[in-house]
Amino acid sequence: MGPIPNTHWGVEANDDLVKYANTLQGTASDFSCSYGNTYPTTALPFGMNAWTPQTGKNGDGWKYQYTANTIRGFGQTHQCSPWVNDYAVFTLMPVAGTLVVDENKRAAAFHHENETGRPDYYKVQFDNGITTEITPVERGAAMRFSYPATEEGFLVLDGYTQLSEVNIDAAHRRISGWVNNSRWTPKGFRNYFVLEFDQPFMSFGTWENEKNTILKDSTQKEGKGAGAWLQFPKGAVVQVKIASSYISPQQAATTLQRELGAFTGFDDTRAAAQQVWNKLFHRVLVEGGTEEQKATFYSCLFRANLFSHQFFEYNEQGQPVYYSPYDGAIHDGYMYTDNGFWDTFRSQFPLNTILHPTMEGRYMQALLAAQQQCGWLPAWSFPSETGGMLGNHAISLLTDAWVKGIRSFSADSALKAYYHEATNKGPWGGANGRQGWKDYYQLGYVAYPESQGSTAQTLEYAYDDFCAWQLATYTGNRFYTNVFARQLYNYRNVFDPATNFMRGRLTNGQWATPFDPLDWGGPYTEGNAWHYTWSVFHDVQGLINLMGGEQHFTAKLDSVFSMPNIIKTGSYGTIIHEMKEMQLANMGQYAHGNQPIQHMIYLYNYARQPWKAQAHVRAVMDKLYNATEKGFPGDEDQGGMSSWYVLSALGLYAVCPGTDQYVIGSPLFPKVTITLENGKQFIIEAKNNNGKNVYISHATLNGKEYTHNWITHTDITNGGVLHFDMSNKPATNRGILNADKPFSLTTK
């Protein structure tokens, strides 16, 4: 990443904060080690699609790797993660001199110093002299290709990995068609696209990427990897407007006119995209701090506002409509997709409740619509339900919205849907319905080895059942209150007091042996006992009691960091990337590169040692995050990891979504001003804040002394000032009363 221009402390409304966000953050990743597993996303917030350069072969999950030195196309993308690959992709690639369509042979060399990656704008100049530029709209993009004066220019549209169709309308300077590459979609799924060029074609034709056969003057082709090509004169600067639709070719044309029709050209489109991102960034305005900290913060804020993707479109009357990825029908209203809730319920959705409550309200409606259309609440949609990972965390989203005043849905319908989820196993993946649900109800835990990841499942099911109990309690639904009250404390059934760890348990009640808390896998998912023992989000006090009190609890927390960063592969039998990332972090057994332990630092607030949370959270932000291609300590996961950073930099974190509390950490900046949707502002001030003064010595909320280690969502949405005085010494007598502890089901 290049140098960031200096800015003054006083930030004006029109100051460009978008320059701080580096979309190449986290792209130096591969199968064995993730620094984010991201790609240089060019998109508007929560857009229906995004755009990226492609260095990998068609179908490769690692679409873009910083270590690559050639690019083979620029494509539409929806990819959540390389581990699930992508869908609905088509790409464009400029070629100079001679028409070359083969993706390996057309790949052009580049150097990163000739590359710009911003949320509103991607640009690269190839070594061959061609320049490509991209700027986004919500359901498409504008691109500009500049060819060298010495060679004629070609543009290749690649239909990617499955069936596709292209139609060339030279008279109207258009290409239209569709692609259907996908894994989790109904039969008949298509992504319809339309491209509109600003100048005529010298020549044109079609091709296919199986044998790379080229047909000149051909205007239509359908089949595996069907594509198109165009020719332009030497030195041409070609602009193209692109839009797509899951509904119909006509809807794609409507969207093109709606989203790009008002722009005279590329530069106008980019100015509008820049304005959208700048407005959002100014809504979370940080002041002070270093230029590097601002770059990391706004790069993370960018990533935190990409997923879930809108999956709805606006028809000719301006009304929202969508093709359902669940039942294949067209519906009125809103739909969102491309999100794994195991990754995001902990941080990204709580951040959304602060910044985007209107969208959250629509999202909750979409969750229940999805359940009606496929019979199950989503767990990981991409774009239909995949059932990826574990837990039934849609209920976390629904309850978190409700308790924070976002009540756009029927709580009764949500509880009915969740009850079905929690008492059945669906056909897709471990998180579609409930793996091991019969054992969970009959034994009080999921048995091992009948279910791999059983202890992790037990812990997350108990939290999800708490969320359902909480929603039922809030809404006076006694039936579901009674149903879910029985499971709230099931976490106790997998806690072994002899070892002070959460453990795998056999059907007969005995503990699974042999037991080594360093072993990964088995009864844990992508982690070990050191990571999962803390997964009692809703009853930390209950966990403290199980461990024999606060002194034992905080000593155990301390030991996470003092333990050596030893890896034992356990049931995996080989080193997976999450293990390597824990080792690289070099913070003992604290594995921030994956979700299970990311909340653990904040648990000191529940045991009268909040200053330790303050020190550790600042150390993690300083050591494990930056704005470069190695900017994350593991998979970024649809905004999950970046939202942890954004919230933590504000000095807040939602340890238990489904309650109205945020636990206080240590704010990174001297001042942050959050402008809310309701027009009010919540200001977080941290006097004398710097890299050494990480401890809170005194606090006030709206001028009144404040000792609690938490604030409520209403405190934020009402607007006001949370003021901290920062020091280089722990304030060991502050935040230590029972009333200062954040929410736990168990109160003593």
UniProtKB/TrEMBL annotation:
Pfam families from the entry? Glyco_hydro_92, Glyco_hydro_92N
Cofactor(s) for this UniProt protein: Ca(2+)
Quaternary organization: Monomer.
Q: Which SUPFAM superfamilies match?
A: Six-hairpin glycosidases (SSF48208)
Q: Would I find Transcription regulation among this entry's keywords?
A: no
Protein name listed in UniProt: Alpha-mannosidase
Q: Does the keyword Calcium apply?
A: yes
Domain Glycosyl hydrolase family 92 N-terminal stretches: 20-245
Domain annotation Glycosyl hydrolase family: ranges: 251-727
Identify the domain of life. Answer: Bacteria
Q: Give the record's keywords alphabetically.
A: Calcium
